[in-house]
Amino acid sequence: MAFADILLEQKQAALDDLRGVKELFASRNWFPGTSGNLSVRVGDFTPEEFYFAITASGKDKSVHTPEDYLFVDRNGKPCETTGLKPSAETLIHCEIYRKTGCGAIFHVHTIDNNLVSEWYGDQGFVPAQGIELIKAFNIWEEDAAISIPILPNYADIPKIAALVPDALDPSVPGILLRNHGIYAWGRNAFEAKKHLEAFEFIFEYTYRRLLLNAAGSNQAR
């Protein structure tokens, strides 16, 4: 399917999804500065041909303007004539879409996901076990355990993108960049939002647990 063949309603639906999610996440202060990026796939998907709407680079995500988003192809190149630049991290979205076939990818920077990714960075993953929100990933085993992958935060984005395929875990719809932020995805915008909220709960829980453990160790001395 060529981009020109994608129905206007599909394109508008993707933009509507992005607008709603952007407004919600901005209200939670998940886009400090102009950080973070959001994307939603449009049209039929194959690994060889797909398109998605993504937030434009350098925009204040706490406000809405007619130039907040643009459409790009599987290589992250604009599909329409535009003066907008896609997010610098669009290539990471391209790899996740290509490997997972997902319908939406949301990336935010929070204090908790930065601190937790730095704490476990040398280990290469954040361990989480027995946390109720793991069920958001359709994992229902009692006392379930997951490992959330952490990738190095290289300044060279293609270098990060090249690591994405080998880091993906089909059961864990998220990847952390160390001291940077989380990418979470799902079949559609609703599921990607659900997954992102679950990850953020797990990161906050993990960070607070580390603080409590440290306080307990100090009191025991």
From TrEMBL:
SMART domains: Aldolase_II (SM01007). Its EC number is 4.2.1.109. Gene3D superfamilies: Class II aldolase/adducin N-terminal domain (3.40.225.10). It comes from the Bacteria. One of its GO terms (cellular component) is cytoplasm. Its cofactor is Zn(2+). Zn(2+) binds at H107, H109. It catalyses: 5-(methylsulfanyl)-D-ribulose 1-phosphate = 5-methylsulfanyl-2,3-dioxopentyl phosphate + H2O. It is an enzyme of class 4 (lyase). Keywords: Amino-acid biosynthesis, Lyase, Metal-binding, Methionine biosynthesis, Zinc. GO terms for biological process: L-methionine salvage from methylthioadenosine. Residues 16-207 form the Class II aldolase/adducin N-terminal domain. Pathway: Amino-acid biosynthesis; L-methionine biosynthesis via salvage pathway; L-methionine from S-methyl-5-thio-alpha-D-ribose 1-phosphate: step 2/6. Belongs to the aldolase class II family. MtnB subfamily. Catalyzes the dehydration of methylthioribulose-1-phosphate (MTRu-1-P) into 2,3-diketo-5-methylthiopentyl-1-phosphate (DK-MTP-1-P). This is Methylthioribulose-1-phosphate dehydratase. The gene is mtnB.
